[in-house]
Amino acid sequence: MKALVLIALLTQMPAQAVVYKYVDANGLVHYTNIRPERNNYRVLNLDCLHYGTHCPGGKPIDWNRVPLITDKYRELTRGIARKLGVDEALIRAVIHAESAYQPKAVSRAGAQGLMQLMPATQQRFGVKNPFSPASNIEAGVRYLQLLLNMFEGNVDLAVAAYHAGENAVRRNGNRLPPNDSTREYVRRVRILRQRYRRVLGTG
């Protein structure tokens, strides 16, 4: 089952934040946090996907069983991983956790693209088009690389900083921030990374 199917299942559950998906007259798929002025849109419940916790009336996501996505951006992620010296499985896990490989995904907070880059992060790494897979992934990996260096190779802290911001980790004495959403995010990425490493033959 593809990730898109997973997201489609989640659309039936209530959410605190939503993303609208619609197809325009040219057949292009759009993702936006602004409700479209049309009837043929779908609501994507990204909160349930993003936090991996119980959604009202729904079931928790089992990240040990969620189908991995191995057929998208394989060469791109591999090339960027080699170029920047960042574990390919970690990159794929973050993409999966952030957007489920949807290049046009937009969060309620304004994060965009495959690796859900905030506008400030886009500016920091010179991203002109956050919906370009190549630009988005390279900037996201450059940020991960910076965080891994900042926290001396501690993957959990780097992932926590990617989710909550580097200052949130620093303020907590270079430990995981106490908020549940960040801790759940770190757990999810850890699981996905281990699974991708097995698939990629790197672990």
Kindly list the characteristics that best describe this protein.
48% helix, 3-stranded antiparallel sheet, Lysozyme, 9 helices, mainly alpha
Written overview of the protein:
The protein has nine helices and three strands. By secondary structure, it is mainly α. The protein has two domains: 3-51, no CATH class; 74-200, Lysozyme, CATH 1.10.530.
SSE diagram, text form:
Blueprint: H1 3-10, E1 19-23, E2 29-32, E3 41-44, H2 46-51, H3 74-84, H4 88-99, H5 119-124, H6 133-150, H7 155-164, H8 166-171, H9 180-200
Antiparallel strand pairs: 1-2, 1-3
Helix pairs in contact: 3-6, 4-9, 6-7, 7-9
The CATH architecture category of the largest domain equals Orthogonal Bundle
State the total count of DSSP E strands: 3
- Indicate how many domains the architecture comprises: 2
Radius of gyration: 16 Å
Tell me, what is the CATH class of the largest domain?
Mainly Alpha
| Largest sheet geometry | 3 strands, antiparallel
CATH topology of the largest domain: Lysozyme
Which percent range describes the beta-strand content?
A: 5-15%
Biggest sheet, spatial arrangement of strands: 2-1-3
Provide mean pLDDT, rounded.
82
The amount of helix comes to: 40-55%
- Element-by-element helix/strand order: HEEEHHHHHHHH
Poorly predicted runs of 5 or more residues: 1-17, 50-57
What spatial form do the alpha-carbon principal axes imply?
globular
Instruction: Quickly count the helices.
Output: 9
Question: Structural class of the helices, strands and pairings?
Answer: mainly alpha
- What is the CA–CA distance across the termini? 24 Å
